Amino acid sequence: MNAFKKSVSPLAKVFCDIKYTGDGKLSISGNMPNGGGQINTMLREIPEEEREYMPGWDAETFNRFLDVWDEWHLNDMRAGCEHQRAEKWENKRIDPVEVPGVIANRDERGVLAIWVRKSEHPEGLLCEPCPVCGYKYGSAWLKEEVPEDVLSFLVSLPDSGIDPGDSYNEQAEKFLAKTGATITAEHKETAKYFDDDKETRDIYQITITRGTRSYSFPFGQSINNSGKYHAINIYGKNQNNGNTVFPPTWEPPMVNRGGDPLKKGMDYKKNPNFSAPSAYDVLAAIQKNDPGTFHDFCMDFGYDEDSRRAEKTYEAVKEEYTQLSRLFTDSELEEMQEIN
Ligand SMILES: [Zn+2]
Description:
alpha+beta; 4-stranded antiparallel sheet; binds zinc ion; 340 residues
């Protein structure tokens, strides 16, 4: 099957992007009024009587779509081989009282056997060889080919009529190509960034360059897109201790579970939405029109003119616009305003 990319809308106000790459990787993500990203479980929990199917969709198609999503999303990141998956190694649990030293990777059913070594418990499966092919569980990320009938099913789903995923990004990329400008994002740190931040997020240094001129400034990435991994407690709930996002360089220990910065009672989950700021993210957020006087600015955004914080924000916005005016002409800035 050739690479494809499409957007589908199974239910009212629900949009899902499906992407299949030339090297056979499938990813699916979605957006609904109360969430985005891996929303397949949330979608499944919507009671049948509340589901407003869009044209071309019914209960059967919808459920099959969710099954495909559960089963094949990130088919290139399997910790087990096909035989281990067929034997459902991922479902095997050990009673927590039998492995008191293992604090992470457990759920209400017990400790996941795939994260326990045989030396820790006789039922441990981590690094145990497959009886068929000998592959040791968890020793690599394996790719499992998505079956043709699954791909044909996805291709046959009705298009939502919306350009899939990154049409905004394409607009931003076109603008950069036309003006010969470049945008780079370099990760600086993972910390609280905005005044009211309760959790950490990735902070990048963005540099827009055009010819010999450039403008560089910090950018707080959305928490949703920050960190390859997020901290959760051992029962799978968000840790929410003000330090939810691990820096992007943090990789989970394959074997030595519970090590720093994983604290007691703390686990992690992979963040499927992890990404550096795109050209679109930057161009959409940046100040592209003249904020005018402080008075105009306060009128436009409903700020109190006596507020110290409003003044600080105004100064920052004004500086951003001034810097951008050095890089782009008025008509280019006007064109950039379309990106939002
Ligand atoms: Zn095998």
